[in-house]
Amino acid sequence: MTATVTTDSSTEKSDRVTSRGTGGARRRLPRIPDRIRQGGLPYLLLLPAVLLELLVHVIPMIIGIVMSFRELTQFYINNWGGAPWSGFDNYKIAVDVNAPIGEALLHSFFVTCVFTFFAVGLAWLFGVAAAIMLQENFRGRGFLRAIFLVPYALPVYAAVITWAFMFQRDNGLVNHVLHDQLGLTDQPSFWLIGDNSIYALIVVSVWKGWPFAFLIVMAGLQNIPRELYEASAIDGAGIWQQIRKITLPALRPVNQVLVLVLFLWTFNDFNTPYVLFGKAAPESADLISIHIYQSSFVTWNFGTGSAMSVLLLLFLLVVTAAYLLITSRGRKGADA
Amino acid sequence: MRTIRAAAAVTLAISIAAGVTGCGGGSSAKGGSNDSPKTLTYWASNQGPSIEADKKILTPELKKFEEQTGIKVKLEVVPWADLLNRILAATTSGQGPDVLNIGNTWSASLQATGALLPWDKANFDAIGGRDRFVDSAVASAGAEGKDPSAVPLYSLAYALYYNKKSFADAGISKPPATWDELVADGKKLSKDGKWGLGAEGANLSNNIHQTFVLGQQHGADFFDSAGKPTFTSDGAVAAVKQYIDFMAKDKIIAPGNAEYAQNQSLTDFAKGKTAMVLWQAAASTFAAQGMKPEDWGAAPVPVGSGTPGTGKSTNSMVAGINMAVFKNTKNIDGAKKFVKFMTSDAEQKLLNKTYGSIPPVKTAQADAAFSAPDLKVLRDTLATSAAPLPQVPNESQFETAVGTAVKELWADAAAGRPVTTESVKARLEKAQQTMQQ
User: b/e string for B397-407 if b means 16 or more Cβ within 10 A?
Assistant: First the structure.
């Protein structure tokens, strides 16, 4: 319902804008039929964007879906339109958890869920905490704001490869600090292979992701009237009460979008694990994006890889829809 | 308003044009044409210390070719890590270069795509004949019984490189010839923070190269005659276990080597931290790391017993780079001329000398420049005791599946977890089950 109302009102609005605009242009362009002038021009102007969107997103997606129903291996990639249809075979292989391919996909799905939970949770937490801490004006705030955004500004490849060097067992900075200087471990740990890999991945992901949360929350904070804090302070509210009762509720719409975006980016993150671990990630950090890449481009089973991609797309669509539904209900409740 | 309408029209036209040009692909051209006879695009694999170095080496040669034929070659040096993906993308879209380098272990996989020009008798005759090339190099350019999918360009083989000073300090007079000797020497060398042997545990290809050779020595091929994977055969399991045991049981490889994938084992060797390394043509890398030629020696890779030869005495895979032509090239004659130029005696001598590899062209190989002791080892290995990796269409899956299994076993060994025949077999079993075709 909400969506319908929004669409209608926006259409009305754009119609009004259009009529004003075309009203002024009537004398100069008498040949444009009224029908187009009044209703069609916005659509005509949108057409290039729609075509490009089709080209960049929709058509590849449709091709991907078609591929998932074909037996597409190296024997057919030179003429992939001629690959034999395989029905739901690729999907059966992908979801058969009793066979190694399905079992490995399920494993990577769980790894990705755990990774996303911690990476998004911590990035959000650090971003919000930093934004709130920098809310008050103080000497050096500008400098700190700039410094905090550095991870966001750095090229992903350069940043992650630096982390890979730091995580090296024998010569890396991480073990130098944890083992040599602080003596926290009995012996230098492996971070890029074995069970610790997931921790390394989460650390890099959080480092890379929290400045975005910081930026968005900082923008959100600008919209909270200072009077609310002043009034609550007069009423005796402490800083924690202000955060709980004023800041977080006011940030709610911002946070809803922020968490959704961070979730989608993190769940699909390919660059971080690929640069950190190469094309064969350790089992403990075998994210689904790398797993699908490996199925498609490393083992050349493009059909199975496409089926896995479609399943991932469906999962993310369902989660996103459920999230939007729940948060919009919550918002309606709050508005009421 | 007129401006808006014009802008909309232009944008629309661009969108449609982009749509038309962007939707090409799935080409199935039968054998090239000569529609564009004056230019060629060449994807060279990164052979030298850097992409810039490769450009510097190749550009004057391409100029020579242009002067001779009037054909301008557009060069792109592609890093190894990207090359296979780039080739796959080019194969799928039909928008690739005219001539390209491929790793010879990918030959059969890429041959199966049907995108590369097959080198039948006529095509070989156009570049001077098949007989000009060393047999083992041609054998590694495609599946047995089929016309090769590429022409050998640079040949490589594995050797055992050893640090002369470390050996002298440990009282070892000559490099090991058998694995037992290597382990015994390695134990003498592994002390005071130094180690006997280096490995690249997280490098999937290197894992495959080493375990394939050990597999040959244990009588295992990893594929049967019908092309079906046999990763869990007793010989294959024993080969993989023997390799991991250098770290897990014999303790002659540093645990940190389990995460190496960027040639760190060569750096360790150059710094004197490890005394031996199994590598292909490492001379230029050692020189770049400050080692003098007299600091190191090269010997044939050890075998189980006796001397290197064929079958159970195989001590290297046939490594190397081949030159392929995309079937849908618009300059088929020019592409063949370019392959002929790059495989000519003069260019073979020059390029292989620069890259420290061995020419796969017999007449060039006989040149004195390839008689240095280390190159002689590589040359003899190629001629007498090297075997090509399985030339099956799913070779690249094999590299990934078994290479990853070995990587995980290295991680187990490095973490001190037991590596047993059962655990090796279980990893290989899993690898085999992921092979779909």
Answer: bbbbbbbbbbb
Q: Quote the pLDDT of residue A29.
A: 53
- pLDDT value of residue B374: 87
Distance CA A162, CA A174 (A): 12
Tens-place pLDDT, residues A7-18: 344 444 444 444
Q: Which domain covers residue A229, as residue numbers?
A: 100-332
**Which CATH number characterizes residue A327's domain?**
1.10.3720.10
Q: Is residue A38 in some structural domain?
A: no
The model's pLDDT over B7-30, given as tens digits with 9 standing for 90+, comes to 444 333 333 333 333 333 333 345
Nearest Cα of chain A lies from the Cα of B384 at a distance, in angstroms, of 32
User: What pLDDT does B57 receive?
Assistant: 93
Phi-psi region of A236 (alpha: psi -120 to 50; beta: other; left: phi over 0): left
Contact A77 B14 (CB under 8 A): no
pTM greater than 0.90: no
Q: Is B414 on the interface with A (CB under 8 A)?
A: yes
Nearest residue of chain B to residue A303 (CA atoms): B436
The rounded distance, in Å, linking the Cα atoms of B395 and B105 is 7
Given this model, what pLDDT does residue B435 score?
Answer: 80
- How do residues A263-278 score in pLDDT, each as one tens digit? 999 999 999 999 999 8
CA dist B298 → B177, B281, B358, B417 (Å): 12, 10, 15, 33
Query: Which domains are seen in chain B, by residue range?
Result: 39-155+319-387 (3.40.190.10), 159-316+390-435 (3.40.190.10)
Region at B150 (left for phi over 0; alpha for psi -120 to 50; beta for the rest)? beta
Q: How confident is the model at residue B281, as a pLDDT?
A: 81
Residue A3 falls inside a structural domain: no
CA distance A188 to chain B (A): 9
User: Any chain B CB within 8 A of the CB of A270?
Assistant: no
- Count up the domains in chain A and report the number: 1
What pLDDT, in 10s, does the model give residues B82-115? 888 899 889 888 889 999 999 988 899 899 999 9
Chain B contact present for A225, CB below 8 A:
no
Cβ contacts of B259 on chain A, cutoff 8 Å: 168-169, 190, 192-193
Sort strands B39-45 and B99-103 into parallel, antiparallel or unpaired: parallel
